[in-house]
Design goal:
Thrombin, subunit H; 7 strands; 41% strand
Length: 140
């Protein structure tokens, strides 16, 4: 689960409780049968993610933190994390199908999700690289 994090030299790990909670969310997800508010479909997907808060110029303004995706769509992503999300804009790094993906995200919602926290946002841009340098993983 933490192989993505280890690729960056980040030794932190997601708590077993958060991983178990995310798995339950994925397994218990049901297809919504009512009127869809979103223009796009979202797909339940649990992928480990490294995040960092960004300023308006896509420069890191926080220490990196770990999350997992809850769902992924063509233009948006849902996330599960251990601490409240105070940021308006973040970058995420994930590996999907063996490909490194770095995205800038504008968070549109954030709140409690069971014993953890959830947030979701829209993709602003695909980044050429994760904005936090390798030697910056503990202090940006």
């Amino acid at each position: 689960m933490s192989n993505v994090i280890e690729q960056f030299g980040f030794t932190g790990t997601l708590s077993p409780e958060l991983v178990a909670f995310a798995k339950r969310q994925l397994v218990n997800a049901t297809l919504y049968k009512g009127r869809q508010r979103r223009r796009e479909g979202r797909f339940p997907m649990m992928v480990p993610v490294i995040g960092v808060a960004l300023d308006d110029q896509n420069q890191p303004v926080s220490d990196p933190f770990e999350m997992v995706t809850r769902d992924v769509g063509a233009t948006s992503v849902g996330l599960i994390h251990e601490d409240p999300m105070l940021h308006q804009r973040i970058a995420i790094h994930m590996v999907v199908g063996g490909v490194d993906v770095d995205m800038a995200i504008a968070l549109k919602w954030r709140g409690a999700l069971g014993p953890f926290y959830g947030s979701g946002g829209v993709y602003l841009a695909r980044l050429d690289h994760f904005p936090c340098q390798m030697d910056c993983l503990y202090v940006c």
